Amino acid sequence: MLHHPFHARYLSEEFSQTRAVAGFLPRYTPVAVVVVGLLCIHALCIHSSAPLFAQTRLLDSLRAVLPQHTDSSRYRILLALCWESRAVDPQASINYGEEALHVAHKYDFNSDVSRTHRFVGVAYRNLGNYPKSTEHIFKALELDEKSGDEREIGHSLNTIGRIFISQQKAKEASKYLERAFQIAQKVKDERLLAYCLLNMMQVRHLQGNYSESLGYGLRALKMWEKIGAKSNIAATYLDLGLQFKELANYQTALEYYSKALALFEELHQESDISTTKNRIGVIYLALGQIAPARLNAEQAYNIAQSMQLRVQMKESLWILAETSSRLGNFKQSLEYYRVFKNMSDSLFNEESAKQSALYNAQYEYGQREQRIVSLEKDVRQQAFVRNALIVIAALLVIALLLFGTRFRLKQRSEAMLARRAEELAEANTKLRTAQLEIAEQNRRLREMDKEKTELLSLTAHDLQNPLSAIQGVAEALHSESHDDAVVPAALVHTMSGVILDTAKRMFEMIVKIISADALESGKFSFDSTTFQANFIVTSVVDRFEQVALQKDIRIKTEVPSAPILVFADQIATIEIIENLLSNAIKYSPKGKQVLVRLSESEVLRTNHIWTREEWEKVQNGTAEFAMEACVRIEIKDEGPGLTEEDKTHLFTKFAKLSAQPTNGEHSTGLGLAIVKHLTGAMNGRVWCESERGQGANFILELPQTAQKKG
Question: Which pTM does this prediction carry?
Fold first, then answer.
């Protein structure tokens, strides 16, 4: 194995990587001199005004030098190419890294192999292949802990935390990031510290703590500006924009996204350009500007498709589906949603989550085993010291003193063995707990698979009748077409109406299944704003007026003329009211009435943390309960009502109730489950008051202002 003389680290990681590449080349060769010179130019240009020029020249130079090396010296060049290509061309980065690992294995050396695994893991993460990314990064951590290099351990821990963030596992990510943060402070690595702050910002974002998330992000931005790393500054702009988006400050979010896009385009980081354009598209979508939202999503999708960036492709598809829906192109929207769902399943499938949990459990088990081995080593050392003391004491003291000393040493040894036994028992208990947790996860995965099978069976059954209806009408029209007589226009109109109604029914069924799946998997995007509830309620009632008249049902509204404001997601609120009003009409007999009432009320603050002093004041009559204003929407029908058994599973999926639609209408069994999910996500409440034979009154309450933790 060739000697690697360069181990000093410079202030920036790029310059450190440059020296690492140069260090493995044969010393005093013309090729080495050329490569070292080019790499130094790259390191000096990182903080200059021409980073793209330096980046391009460096990659071209490394590729030109690579064919001249066929022995172990090829490893360092491959490692540098792997690092420099990770964001520009992730697949090429993986190829360089895999070849570097092959060279390391061939020449049997371990220099920087852990770093190679980490770079390959980052490239896989950029491609959205989380199982392979997890495998390589945990391997890097294992090698770093064997070498004892705390700085490298910190970088591996930080990268693992980033993987769990990508899988939206805030708890697991926090565990690794806290260790990485402590190491960064200990070794005074500013770059690692900035990475940790940026990732902790994303953890707080997943936890919904956007104010604290902004604090971490601004600290990270300050450090990146001090270091002068443009790529990382752009990444921080991108994440800061996301926080302002969640706080509904769309203009500020758009400004940060624009700054990030300018830097990424300057650096030609196509993967990040795709991500940024997707986020800009989401902002325009929230502002109701469909054309720029769609344009940015299409540009992002083209970039992601050319580089096979599955995460960015999925985000683009969601925006394209939403814009198509708002433009009234429901067929195209449904196709985008279908591809979006398939890609989501491939990115965040059960196997990926199970593999990450398994690597995490194996790592924790290995940590416990190391502590047990260390404890056993300490016990052996203590035994050796004890015996040595016994021998020395036998030469220096009388037999009585020797006896007393041995007695005391025996007591200490027994106590130590007892403590060791307790620690071993505790370690075994934790291991069994981890095994039980994995078994529970497997059970839940089996239940989810069973539910998916039942869903497919139910969907196939429910689609059978409408498809048969369409087939029957089509066969009737086809048979008429063979007759010499012209098909009457009235017959064509009637049959086409049957086809249209049946297709609408199938479309409604598919949309509700997709909505329920998106809600349960946490992929439904909420954008709560303040708007007038009056307009939303009356517009939904207007749309259902014709449907009600077909059953001779009268819709009575009690909507105040004064504006009533509500803080919620406007699209989700419309969907809730539509589901409830549709059910009221569906289960009401002909000639009845449906009442829709809008009002304001007050409810007890459910998310307020009460102190003992506050409770005492309430009990003494010196203070009142903390109340908050809310909007109440009631939809009351005169149908058959609900039994007590119906009420126990009213809002569950595929619930089969005793009441049946009064005019042969179709029911998917998903509407009320979607209502429950949407209401809870917006900090609201929904329930039903009903007695058998007395109709049903569904009550929806939504907050009038943004709720804050007490």
Answer: 0.41
